[in-house]
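Minutes, project check-in

Agenda point 3 was the complex the collaborators sent over. CS summarized: two entities, 521 residues total, and the question is how they sit relative to each other. Sequences were read into the notes so everyone works from the same version.
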Amino acid sequence: MATSMMRTFGALRSVTCSSLKNAELALDVRHPGPLFLPVRTKKRYFIPPAVGLKGKKEENPEAMAQAAGIVFRQQYFERPINIACSAGVFDPYIPPEGDARLSALSKEGLKQRTEQIRQSAASQLAIRKIKEHDSEFSTKTFAEQAQEIFVEAHNALTHFNREMLHSLVTERCYPEMTRGNRYKTIRWRFVESLEPPRVVHARCPEMVTKGNLYGQVTVRMHSKQTIAIYDRFGRLMLGSEEQPKDVLEYLVIERHLINPYSRWRLHGKIVPSWAPPKDPVIKTVAIPGPELNPWEEYDALNYKVPKPASIQWNK
Amino acid sequence: MAAAMRGVAFIRNIVGSLHLRLQILGGTSQQLSCLHTSISLDSKHWEKNNRKVYPPQLLDEPRRPAEVYHSRRQIKYSKDKLWYLAKMIRGMSIDEAIAQLEFNDKKGAKIMKEVLLEAQEMAVKNHNVEYKSNLYLAESFSGKGKYLKRIRYHGRGMFGIMDKVYCHYFVKLVEGLPPKPEQKTSFDQAKDYVQSLKNRTIIHSL
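CS then shared the predicted structure for the full assembly.
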C-alpha cells in the first residue's frame, strides 16, 4: 500500500513536472526546443573569459627541458624532393626565318627541306646519348609519337583530367597550360596534320649533379587545329569552333633518361621571333598610356602604342 | 489499493499520451531542422558561388551577364549600422555607389568602398568582365559575425555581458545597366485598386 502510494506519488510528481514542461511545449509547437530536465547543479549563467590575464610567457622550453635532464635526439628538418623535369629549355632551337612560308618548289624552300639533322653535331651527340639510355629511340618514329603525346595532352586539357595530364606533360609545362583555365571551358580539336612531324633538334642537359641526364628533343609540327575558349558564364573568349587555323609549332619533349620508368612528356613550345601575332581576345582591353609629368597633357594624335620586341621565347 | 492502482493506470495513460506528444514534437523538430542541414558557422558559401561554371552558350541564346560575388568577414562594425549603407547602395551602378560611399561620413562606408573596388578589380581580372563601369549591385547586405564577449561592470556587484560586435558584408555585382525600378502612375494605382475591389467574392450571400 505504502509502496504503491509512493510509486503513484513518484509517477505523479514526474508526470506533473514533465506535464508542466510539456504544457509549455504544447503551447508553442512552432518552436520545438530541446527538452530540458530539471538538474539542480546546472550552470545557467555565462561569464566571459577575463581579458586581463594573458598568461605568463614561458621562458625557453628547451632550456627547461635541458635543465630537467631530458635529452632530445637531433632533429633533421629535411624533406626529400623528387625533380622529374628540368627547369627550362636548354640551348633552344632557333627556327630559320620563314620556315613554313616558302613553298617546296623554290630554291630557298628546297634548301630548307634538305636541312638534315646531321648538320648539327651537338644534336647528333645528344641523340647518341639518348640511344644509350633508351634503346628504342629512333628519330623516324619519335616524331609520330610526339604528335600523339601532343594530341592526347590537349584532349586531357579539354576534359581537365589531372592524372592523365601529369603523365603526358612535365611539371614545368603543366602550370603554363592550366593557369587560369580552371573555371573556363576549352574546346580544342586537332583537324589534320599538314606536314609529317620532324625531329629538328636534340639536347641532353644535366641538372645539379653530373650524370643526372635529361633528354630534350624538339619536334617541328605543321597542322590544322581549332580552339575555342569559353569563360565561366559560357561566353566565347577566344577563337571559334568552326574555323580551323594552320599552326606551325616547335614542341620540346623531355624525358628523365636516368630513371627507367620515365616517359617522354611535353615540356614546352618554342615561339620564334618571326611568328605572326596571335588572334585578339574578344574583349576590349585598355592599353596603359604614356607616363606623363604633371604639367604635360596627353596627345592622342602623336602617341604611338609601343610594340613589344620580337624575340624568340620559350613557352 | 484499487484506487491507487487506478491512479497509477491513469497516470500511465497521461504519461503515454504525453510521450506521444513529445514524439510528435521531436518529429516536427526533425522535419524543420532539415531546412538547414549543411550550413555551419565556418562555411564560406558566398565565395563559393564564384566557382560555378556554366556550359558554353549556343549562338541564339542572349548573352549571359557576368556575376561576381565578394564579401568581407569580421568587420569591426555593427551589422545594423552597416545595413543602412548596404540598403542605400542596393541597385545602384558601381560608379555611383563608390561615389556615394566616398563622401559618406560613416565608418562602414570606407570599408564598403574598399570591398567594392576589390570586387570590381576581381571582375575585370578573373571573371572576363569587359568594362569595369558596366556593373551594378544586384545584392548587398550585412550579416552578423562572431562576437567577442566581455564583462561590463555595473554597480552593486552586478555585471552584464558586453558584446564586441563584428559583421560581414556581402556584395554581388552583375554586368550590365542597373534595372530601373518600375514606376507606377497614380492613375494605374487607382485602376488597380478599383480592380481589386471588383475582384472580391461575397460568400454565403443570397
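Noted in discussion: The helical segments of chain B are 2-33, 45-48, 79-89, 94-102, 107-126, 186-198.
Follow-up: revisit at the next meeting once the mutant set is ready.
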